[in-house]
Design a protein that fits this description.
mainly alpha, 15 helices
Length: 312
């Protein structure tokens, strides 16, 4: 994604700062819902037409799921520890703003409908992808996905600009927020190590794939180039699972702690998982979510080669 999230969110913030109106916010919110549905549909389609995932799902799917769940568990565990000891993210520490403007806007922000729209759209996309995989173009799917993501990020940026108290919240957190991506990284590495012990897999497979933290394109490509196609599939599938779990279980993760959905999303917290997290946890965490995802996208390309040197 590069700097696209920051350009699009920046544009949205500028629009929100200059033109924030309750009625416009309601329209933006509906557009946001449609863009989320479109993205989830494209994710399902991509899964359905991906030969590598379908071909290897039965043979390595269970192992990839265990690695992903283990990385998620320890990432969330360390994040909760950081939240309780150093970085308060809960509403008691930073309450959401309550005013007439936001109260009117929030009438359409109820997350309940998204909790079923997301899995349904992914499921529909998966079924369509499996049924028509020979006639569907991955280029067209990727184009629709990218444009939907641009629309989504602009809408999220507008919501941030319309709620200026978010910036006060981020200033109060300061550089302490860096403890969050560090906790997510450490938890992913530990989770990969534990999964390797449980499954009896070589540590380079389990630890490096877990350390992708939802950055499946980079992790899959890196592991394929380094270890071959079969092992490279772990890097891709483990992180696809992590992203899907993060999206589908945001409502449950948000009940654990405010930072748990961010930990689950990993690098995807800066784009695909950003809107669902904002929906269920609140606008106040949107910039923290974006910043955490950005830090992880810088860490992962450096971390994978280091782990390869250590683990072989």
């Amino acid at each position: 994604m590069g700097f696209l999230p920051f350009v699009t969110i920046g544009a949205g913030i500028a629009i929100g700062l200059l033109f924030a109106r309750p009625k416009l916010s309601l329209v933006i919110d509906q557009i946001l819902n449609l863009s989320i549905a479109s993205i989830m549909l494209m994710i399902g389609l991509n899964l359905g037409i991906n030969d590598s995932i379908i071909r290897n799902f039965v043979s390595i799917g269970f192992q990839c799921l265990i690695i992903s769940l283990s990385a998620l568990f320890f990432s969330i565990l360390l994040t909760v520890i950081v939240e309780r000891s150093a970085v308060r993210l809960d509403k008691q520490a930073f309450p959401d703003t309550s005013n007439e403007f936001l109260d009117e806007v929030k009438q359409s922000l109820a997350p309940d409908k998204m909790s079923w729209i997301i899995p349904i759209c992914i499921g529909i996309g998966l079924v369509i992808g499996l049924m028509f995989r020979d006639s569907l173009s991955s280029d067209v799917i990727d184009t629709i996905f990218n444009w939907s993501l641009i629309v989504l990020l602009v809408c999220v940026g507008y919501s941030q600009g319309a709620n200026r108290e978010i910036f006060t919240y981020l200033r109060r957190l300061g550089l302490r927020f860096l403890l969050l991506p560090l906790a997510i990284t450490a938890g992913s590495i530990i989770g990969g190590f534990v999964a390797g012990l449980i499954l009896g897999l070589p540590m380079n497979i389990s630890v490096i794939s877990a350390s992708g933290m939802s950055f499946y394109s980079l992790t899959g490509a890196y592991m394929t180039q380094t270890y071959g196609l079969e092992i490279g599939t772990y890097g891709f599938v483990v992180n696809v699972f992590r992203e899907l779990i993060a999206i589908l279980f945001v409502p449950l993760l948000a009940k654990i702690s405010s930072g748990s959905p961010i930990a689950a999303g990993g690098a995807a917290s800066m784009d695909v998982v950003l809107a669902p997290i904002t929906r269920f946890v609140g606008l106040r965490l949107s910039l923290v979510c974006l910043a955490s995802g950005l830090v992880l996208t810088f860490i992962i390309p450096l971390l994978l080669p280091v782990l390869t040197i250590i683990l072989g």
